[in-house]
Design a protein that fits this description.
The structure holds two protein chains of two kinds. Chain A is mainly alpha-helical. Chain A folds into two domains: 29-266, MetI-like fold; 268-400, no CATH class. Helices cover 75% and strands 0% of the residues of chain A. Chain A contains 15 helices and no strands. In chain A, helix 5 packs across helix 7 (178-208). Chain A starts with 26 loop residues before the first helix and ends in a 6-residue tail after the last helix. The relative contact order of chain A is 0.12. Chain B has a domain at 7-90 and 163-244: P-loop containing nucleotide triphosphate hydrolases (Rossmann fold), CATH 3.40.50. Chain B is 39% helix and 24% strand. Chain B has helices at 45-52, 74-83, 99-110, 115-128, 144-156, 174-189, 201-207, 225-230, 235-245; strands spanning 7-16, 19-29, 34-38, 60-65, 68-69, 84-87, 162-166, 193-197, 210-215, 218-223. The N and C termini of chain B lie far apart (44 Å). The chains are: A mainly alpha, B alpha/beta. Chain A binds chain B through residues 15-16, 19, 164, 166-167, 169-177, 180, 184-185, 188-189, 192, 267, 333, 335-336, 351, 353-354, and chain B through 53, 55, 74, 78-79, 81-82, 84-86, 88, 90, 92-98, 101, 105-106, 109-110, 136, 138, 140, 151, 154-155, 158. Bound molecules: adenosine-5'-triphosphate and magnesium ion. Adenosine-5'-triphosphate is lined by residues 16, 19, 21, 39, 41-47 of chain B.
């Protein structure tokens, strides 16, 4: 449930926050790093070890809840997309000078933040059915969207307001229109402030999406419950469910960490060591694998709409869309890459500030090239992949 | 046309709620002239400059730039701003862009220049302000004086007809003030029209033909720097000068 896990829009790093020196990680952060490594190694070792030593319940459970993981991603991604849109509206409303919109947005934020997510879900699914009957999926997405829209709205508000007024004035004084100033000056700076907390919202939502299992949606938790109640292997099932959540959360929290710290690293002209590069490649590959999984989740949703299209066309176009977003990100000169990709991108030995079209294309390739391979590996090896593969090849995608 | 003042301010009023920040200000600035504006804190100096490029919307009165009266219309205002450079006390460089990117943004976005052309101009301007080696640095890597010089270069890149300076040196450590003033003196010698809010007496004496003393939103006295500093006419001017000159 939404509670203390909620990183409130921090006052935001100082507007020049990404310029701080990251050479001296404070001890607290260092112990967090160590804890991260211990946790992830333990989780991976346990999952793999259990699957090898006791394949009977464990491999089966992985196969069973794997499907649920995809649903968890689906619910999260779709809800997050809408929540970002709603959050942008709420955030702009909260910064609006027009008091009507301002009050409206504030009211929304205050009310929603005062009601537990689970209560909201129940209300939407059960209470509202007195007037409109919404399906479980629509209810789930609606509930997560409305709830997180309020929190993300506050994050956006904080980000926009953290950019000093002088920035807009300097841009306008050059003759830029308000829109151009937003695009070239304000948003690129605000994004840096907003990205890490939004990343944390994503992680929080990934966990909170387990609440939708009460609406009979086969997310990972629900799948675990189904398996456990059938086989009575409660301990094994819920241990794995917990560990998979942990694993996913840990990986994404590392992504957020890199987004936060990658930004400051870019500013220094520090030499990039070989270890640095290797670490970058490994992190990128791990992340890309997850992007692969997310892409599948997306495709599944898409495939509902375009069931006739051959699966791989959909796959490729999804990758292309992802790549294009990435390309756009560079092309609008958002500049120094936030996040882990940047570490890997150092391989090209470029200054990562204002890529030419050629460099941007190279980055695009770097992003999408490993995807098909990874996807294939995923299909070959992971039970989730098999299940997905079956769905893609034998049936029209859909869940009930 | 060339005989009309490049800036014409007539009966300008600006109110912020109950504060009457500008109270019936009229001022002409000739082409190529340097006007220095001084006055106590809160006297409306910044507000006057900010009205000229319409960062503040006047409550009443008119402002004409190069013979064209500036009204509210967005397109006209943007066009005017491209011709009126402004340098701020706090520099306001864009921290996410390199020095070169800061400078080429205006020409590329507003004038739709090719990147190469804009970069060439940027390098030329960085030579002019004396920091060609900082082209690829980020603002955070520069000293205050260097940042302010980049800010001047950024404004110059728009090839403005007028430059506004709002206390360009008052956020600087003493040892950096000179390097910025030197750049401004160069500009003045090149014939740039400048309105400068600054209490740097040396600059006023060397560059300005006229100096304006403001208090409580009004122009109290307007004369040559020499006369103002040596023989101020008004009581308020005297009091103010005795404060800043000790
Ligand atoms: N945005 C604003 N909202 C409300 N009041 C303002 C605003 N800007 C300026 N003022 C007020 O208008 C008056 C003139 O301010 P202005 O900044 O022009 O003075 P100044 O001469 O530049 O002073 P300083 O030397 O301190 O910079 C002051 O009383 C100030 O408080
Ligand atoms: Mg001022």
């Amino acid at each position: 449930m939404k509670s203390e896990s909620h990183p409130h829009p921090r006052p935001g790093p100082h507007p020049h926050g990404w310029q701080q020196d990251d050479s001296a990680l404070i001890p607290r952060e260092r112990s967090l790093q160590i804890a991260w490594w211990i946790a992830i190694v333990a989780a991976v070792v346990f999952i793999i070890g259990a699957a090898i030593i006791k394949p009977v319940p464990y491999r089966e459970i992985i196969g069973f809840i794997g499907d649920g993981l995809v649903v968890t991603f689906q619910v999260t991604i779709v809800s997050m997309t809408f929540a970002l849109i709603l959050g942008l509206i709420a955030g702009l409303g909260r910064t609006a000078t027009n008091s009507f919109f301002n009050i409206l947005a504030s009211l929304y934020v205050e009310v929603i933040r005062g009601i537990p997510l689970l209560a909201q879900l129940f209300w939407i699914y059960y209470a509202m059915s007195k007037y409109i009957k919404l399906g479980p999926q629509v209810s789930a997405v609606l509930g997560l969207t409305i709830c997180y829209g309020a929190y993300i709205g506050e994050t956006f508000r904080g980000g926009i307001q953290s950019i000093p007024k002088g920035q807009m004035e300097a841009a306008r004084a050059l003759g830029l229109t308000r829109g151009q100033a937003m695009r070239y000056v304000i948003i690129p700076q605000a994004v840096r402030v907003i990205l890490p907390p939004v990343g944390n919202e994503f992680i929080a939502m990934l966990k909170d999406s387990s609440l939708v299992s009460v609406l009979a949606i086969s997310d990972m938790l629900r799948r675990g419950r189904e398996y456990a109640s059938r086989t009575f292997a409660y301990f094994e099932t819920y241990t794995l469910v917990a560990l998979v959540y942990l694993l996913v959360t840990l990986i994404f929290s590392r992504v957020v960490f890199y987004i936060e710290h990658g930004m400051s690293r870019q500013d220094k002209d520090k030499p990039v060591t070989l270890m640095h590069r290797l670490a970058g490649v490994v992190v990128d590959l791990v992340v890309l694998d997850f992007i692969g999984l997310i892409v599948y989740a997306l495709i599944q949703s898409l495939a509902l709409v375009v069931a006739e299209l051959p699966v791989y066309t959909v796959l490729l176009s999804a990758m292309l869309v992802l790549g294009l977003i990435y390309l756009l990100f560079f092309w609008t000169r958002m500049g120094r890459t936030p996040g882990m990709m940047a570490v890997g991108l150092r391989l090209f030995g470029e200054r990562d500030t204002h890529p030419t079209l050629g460099q941007a294309l190279k980055r695009l390739l770097f992003l999408i090239l490993p995807l098909p391979g990874l996807s294939l590996l995923w299909m070959q090896w992971s039970p989730t992949g098999e299940a997905l593969h079956d769905r893609f090849t034998h049936t029209r995608v859909g869940r009930d | 046309m060339s005989t009309t003042p490049i800036v014409q301010i007539r009966n300008l009023h600006k109110r912020f709620g109950r504060v009457h920040a500008l109270n019936d200000v009229s001022l002409d600035v000739e082409r190529g002239e340097v006007v220095v504006i001084i006055g106590p804190s809160g006297s409306g100096k910044s507000t006057l400059l900010r009205c000229v490029n319409r960062l503040e919307v006047p409550t009443s009165g008119t402002i004409s730039i190069d013979g064209v009266e500036i009204r509210g219309d967005e397109h006209q205002v943007n066009q005017m701003r491209a011709e009126v450079g402004m340098v701020f006390q706090q520099f306001n460089l864009f921290p996410h862009m390199t020095v070169t990117e800061n400078i080429i943004l205006g020409p590329m976005v507003v004038h739709k220049w090719e990147r190469d052309r804009a970069v060439a101009l940027a390098h030329q301007l960085l030579d002019k302000v004396g920091i060609p080696e900082k082209a690829d640095a980020y603002p955070e890597q520069l000293s205050g004086g260097q940042q302010q010089r980049v800010a001047i270069a950024r404004s110059l890149a728009m090839q403005p007809k007028i430059m506004l300076f709002d206390e360009p040196t008052s956020a600087l450590d003493p040892e950096m003030i000179k390097e910025v003033l030197d750049v401004m003196l160069d500009l003045a010698r090149d014939g740039m029209t400048m309105m400068v809010v600054s209490h740097e007496m040396g600059f006023a004496r060397n560059a300005a033909r006229r100096i304006v003393f403001m208090d409580q939103g009004q122009i109290i006295e307007m004369t040559t720097p020499e006369l103002l500093y040596t023989a101020p006419q008004h009581e308020r001017t005297k009091r103010f000068l005795s404060q800043i000159l000790h």
